[in-house]
Amino acid sequence: MIEVENTIKEVIYRKVQEIYKGDVGDIKLEEPPSLKLGDYSTNISFRLARILKRPPKVIAEELVEKLKSESIPYVVDIRAVNGYINFFLDYNSYAKLGIDRIIKEGENFGRGRDRDKKIILEHTSANPNGPLHIGHGRNAIIGDSLKRILEFIGYDVETHYYVNDMGRQEAVVVFGLEKFEIDRDKKPDHAMGEIYIKTNKLLEENPQLEEEIGRIMREYERALENREDSPIVERFQWAVNYALEGIKETLNNMNIQHDTFVWESNYVRNGMVRDVIKRLMETGNVIEEDNVYKLDLSDFGIEKKLVLTRGDGTTLYSTRDIAYHLDKMARCDRGVDVLGADHKLTVQILNAALKLLNSKTPEVIFYEFISLPEGSMSTRRGRFITLDEVLKEAERRAIGEVERRGVAREEEIEEIARKIALGAIRYNIVRVSPEKPMVFKWEEALDFEKVGCPVIQYAHARCCRILEHAREMKVEDRELFNYEMTDQEKILVKTLLKFPKILEISGESLKPHILANYMLDVAHKFNSFYGNCPILKEKDNSILHSRLKIVEATKIVIENGLRLLGIECPGKM
């Protein structure tokens, strides 16, 4: 428990102050590689040795004598080992209190107090010109998992999908809808993707038609600035909303919902974009080149200049993005964006412009690209694997696995397979640190033995089965943890009680993969406990009752953790 760690740190700090009168900064605790060396260890003696010019071994022995005079809750022994100070826990009292707390708090175990701070988190934000592919899926899964974690630890979180309805890509769709008939029998985003692909091919064969794309973009922007509900505005709105209908369906199937869809065009219509240009002009950092106004950001170490408007007077995505972020950052304590690694220069430019306008800047999670073994993807040319296809294939494979194992009735198979499939996709993507490129591999995603989400879901199903059998046996309550616990029990209990700390680290560092990897660790530690410690066959009722409580606590932690990753537990596997 974090309280135990904090108490140990406080006592060490106080004793160091009493004996050596110096400030050595934060006290850090580590976990020794074996329980034989203790549960927590500190290298404070080595840090003091540099200051006091004395051997760390001697300092450690002195400190241990002083620390032993303190009554540190749940600490049964303190030893000096080669200059380190190691702390040993009284697992009977530690487990009794900790496991009881997990069971008592249930679905709220790990929940933080209200922080009274608002975060606006933007994620997914794919162009509405076709279906989401697996690359968009990485963005959406990282963003949604982070939203759930941040809310659970006490933040007020609002998620945004920033809708790019003004770029060339959407103009191509609007133009294409005049040339080609949309297939209304297909899912809307897929049908719109076909229009986009066909129109790009038409433009490649007839380059002179690019003038028409430019005209459509100019006409749409003029109508927005004049706040007209003209036919061009209706055409753009219909096209975007039709595509979003399909995109929202895909996201919903992935257990992802956004609080707000913010349209880029709002900031042209309400005058904020023109106001941003005016304010940037007043900074004295704007120069005129080639009959175009550009923002010079060399003071920020950025060589590339930001074009504020095109030669025809129309605005660019970058300027509209500044307006959106000005608005967003004014409405929250922290802004967070999830973006592909190819946006790094764009973000540098955005942040420099925001600083010129005296605005806070967003924190950005950059993620590297994800691919399938089949290769790279291109929306424009129609070479991509949609998220819908990935989910459908995952469900097909999961159904086969559930049928092979024979653990479910026929009417349950599809629902169980759906939960396994969704967990496989979400977990396999979120468990990898965002800055690492990854290849999505089916054999890893649907792995029931080592690294896949099914390992965690199966551990949960095993917990459910054990507890169900225990209810049938009508196990009587006995005093908990009044016996010498095995190492497997101790390790699992200690791992379970790390859950609140893991959530805090994962949320504050904006790294949901930390929680994901912890969940796999819980499953492996539980499997080790299950394999080495008799549960239902245990003859001693006190040990049996205690181990059932560990199983119940494991079930709760797995449910809580997977829920924060947007994953359901099938209960049967």
Automatic annotation (TrEMBL):
SMART domains per UniProt: Arg_tRNA_synt_N, DALR_1
InterPro entries (alphabetical): aa-tRNA-synth_I_CS, Arg-tRNA-ligase, Arg-tRNA-synth_N, Arg-tRNA-synth_N_sf, ArgRS_core, DALR_anticod-bd, Rossmann-like_a/b/a_fold, tRNAsynth_Ia_anticodon-bd
Residue ranges constituting the DALR anticodon binding domain according to the UniProt record: 456-573
UniProt key word Ligase: yes
PROSITE patterns in the record: AA_TRNA_LIGASE_I
Sections of the chain in a coiled coil: 199-226
Enzyme class of the recorded protein, top EC level: ligase
Occurrences of domain Arginyl tRNA synthetase N-terminal (ranges): 6-89
One GO-annotated biological process of the protein: arginyl-tRNA aminoacylation
Keywords: Aminoacyl-tRNA synthetase, ATP-binding, Coiled coil, Cytoplasm, Ligase, Nucleotide-binding, Protein biosynthesis
CDD domains referenced in this protein's UniProt entry, alphabetically: ArgRS_core
Motif range ('HIGH' region): 126-136
Gene Ontology, cellular component aspect: cytoplasm
Annotated EC: 6.1.1.19
Any Pfam family hit: tRNA-synt_1d
Reactions catalysed: tRNA(Arg) + L-arginine + ATP = L-arginyl-tRNA(Arg) + AMP + diphosphate
Compartments reported by the entry: Cytoplasm
Entry's family note: Belongs to the class-I aminoacyl-tRNA synthetase family.
Protein name (Swiss-Prot/TrEMBL): Arginine--tRNA ligase
Name of the coding gene: argS
